[in-house]
User: Fold these one by one.
Assistant:
Number 1:
Amino acid sequence: MERLVLKKEDIALAILDLNLPDISGIQLAVQLKQIKPCLKIIISTGDPISAMEINNAYGSQLVDKVLNKPFSLSVFEESIYGILGKPL
């Protein structure tokens, strides 16, 4: 796996799939939060899981939102707006 490098001002939100090819979305979220604790994270998944379940399992506010597939573009936009607090 390539080394992950972020600058503090680079990103405010990461949108990750739960099942990535080389690493789980949860593992990547943990790594991202270690680098940038204030980073907001949305997990997209076809699995029946909630943000509360993920956060309870990891004992922190790791994930801000879980979008269960399939979801509409409007749900996607509303989720981003709700987390970032500003229109796209």
Number 2:
Amino acid sequence: MFEVFKKEIRELLRDKKTLIFIVALPVAIFPLLFAVMAFISSQAALEAEQKVNTYAIINGQYAQSFTDKVFYHKSFELYKGEQTFTTVAELTEAVRAGTIDMGIYLPSDAKQTLDEAKQSQWQVVYNDAKAINFLFDRVKELAEEFGDDLRIEKLLSYGISEQQQQAI
């Protein structure tokens, strides 16, 4: 049995192509290649996560606490250029041109809309074509916080205490 093994090893060492494909690729090259790919992708994700995005909000006075949360968030910076935006189309053009990274359009006062038992339809414009994009998740998180605050405030005005709200 050992003689057969020795013969196979000698034959393997004689044929360099087989040695490379059977030993070198699986043992050394593939793990090295996967390590480099993992490092590059983690660096890209880290860079995308730490990027500070410029934004513009149209009608920010309709949701002042949301506007303040976005302003003080570490990942967002208010657009300070000369261009002004008044419509969603202008926001879309600015995102396409790279002037801003994100635009938010607030069509109506969120509190007033809630008092009228309607839903406020906000529009967020951003470039979703990027491979790694944390932008929408961050805005969604801030919008959900704002919505939760509005809901709590409205339920308190109906006489439902915070303890009762937690049970719901």
Number 3:
Amino acid sequence: MLWDDFLNSVHHDWRGDGAAEDRLDDSDWLDAWMDKQQLVVDHRPTAKDITSLKRLRALLHRMAKSFVDNSRPAVEDIVMLNEIMADGAVIRTLSADDDGYRIKLSPIGKQWTNLEAEIAASFSRMLTDNEPSRIRICDNPNCLWVYYDDTRNRSKRYCDDKMCGNLMKVRRFRARKKAESSSNNTN
């Protein structure tokens, strides 16, 4: 999804070395991400554009965190999201494939504000079309990725069970072994 890929553009080293990288500052990453999302703008981002993108990301993170905390986003945040989406005039195009019909929304403008409107609209569509209570933040304290829990029983704890899930399982196992070893040494 557009909104969560954007929201997770701050990369934390999930293994725990404390390193973090803001990928919005990496033009190669930004180009690849925009290609993947089929987003087009008419110029390279200025410092002002990057600052605005980071402000949007902080807004979405605040709103996502409110759902994780079982509360509602602040009214000011909803107002701000609506202001961002106001720059999002789109052309609607119907397409058909073997899976059915889809409507594609393509921004009319090619400015960075139009791109921000698309990201904000993606987050808003998720809120209206899905269950905001399924928004989660990875339980790995070194990762902190935001994701949508689409499991049937709402039990997903990690952004990726193979990476963060396995790492945390190994850490719990080692902590148990260490505790057992210390208690055996004191006896």
